[in-house]
């Protein structure tokens, strides 16, 4: 495509590429007469600039001289100086640009072309959309050129294309100011809906009563960060919660697992639901009682609205595309990401990993708002916890969030998982509480509510969290720690299943789990 300049491997973030007529004689999208009219109106109408300031940038003007004139107008506005033909002319003259734009004669001609400023914003919107179309054409030309280059990695090229489209959409996305009345109506509608709820939970219940009392359920459109050091049970916690939500309450949930495969997650869930130890799942050797329990409880998971995706090194752009589809096609009402630091923002360039994580966390919050669902992202904590001493010293703090303070800033809620017994702390000196088998869930940041902490029961051998008051075998206290990596899975089973719901492809070679009988030796669980 003619008029396309040679580009570097990474898509430019702010470079404006001029697109000329192509081989077929087509001109790029433009509205030169409207550009002239808008600039003329800005120089003769006293308050016109404020009407279009959020829509226009110098780059949206197709004609070079018009871009320079708008830059002068914007500079005058930023200094609260009057904007008229004389002040614009003086500004351009001081910049050495007056003759380049056509002199005072061209400025006068622009003002003469203004028939009316009544439709100024509408005309500015057209100019902005034409510029967006040119940006898309320029991006397509870059991708086309690189697509013919056989040295280019196709996956990287797809990431670059997604990043480019995302950047263009963010630049062109505008939200109008809303008068308060319709917002009040919406707020009242939500309160009325909450009032009709027989319980006190207005959001999506986690299934953990004490936690739900603090949060009133996971709220839309919140970004919730659940952070902990390795071996605290982050994955076990969200899987227990997903079971409570999707399996017990039939609320659609999607889990994006960047660390574990779908089969590993399903095995962890089988451990949780059927209360089977990891070794039993791994070897398939079970007692008659364990086999009976497996056959009975496995059916609880079949057909439930729990969707898995184990794409490794998932980019924020891939996530956005898949999340939109999950919400649209399957009615997913909550998304869980395990875990944030394994994501990337490929297709964009960053000076540091901290900047990339900042973009990811900000994009997750934007996605939660767009889809109007809660998004829960797991996060690692740095090693600061390990260096501190004592019961209180081992308790996580917001400053322990790894790689970026933007995670704390962007999140509506930050929760920590803390298991004192991991650090050989078995009793609370202040209360005398027996801490064996307990996990503390600390709500350290809560933008729309109170902060507090609660205790849950952690049953390590089943990778399961449950309410503290629920019964547990005393022999389980002090059970061995199961790290977040989970049990080992034979390589033949460690393959991607894509986004699937339980009840599909659960057994080897697509066999239904209903076919499980007393003899499990034929299955490689």
Folded structure, characterized:
The protein is α/β, with parallel strands linked by helices and 525 residues long. It has 2 domains: 32-172, DNAb Helicase, Chain A, CATH 1.10.860; 217-515, 3-Layer(aba) Sandwich (Rossmann fold). It is 41% helix and 10% strand. It has 18 helices and 10 strands. It has helices at residues 32-44, 48-52, 64-78, 85-94, 103-112, 120-147, 154-172, 180-196, 209-215, 234-249, 262-274, 278-283, 288-297, 316-330, 353-371, 384-387, 390-393, 406-410, and strands at 223-228, 253-257, 306-309, 334-338, 375-380, 413-418, 438-446, 452-459, 464-467, 500-501. Strands 9-8-7-6-1-5-4-2-3-10 form a 10-stranded mixed sheet, sandwiched between helices. It is elongated, with a radius of gyration of 29 Å. The chain starts with 31 loop residues before the first helix and ends in a 24-residue tail after the last strand. Mean pLDDT is 77; it is low at 1-21 and 479-525.
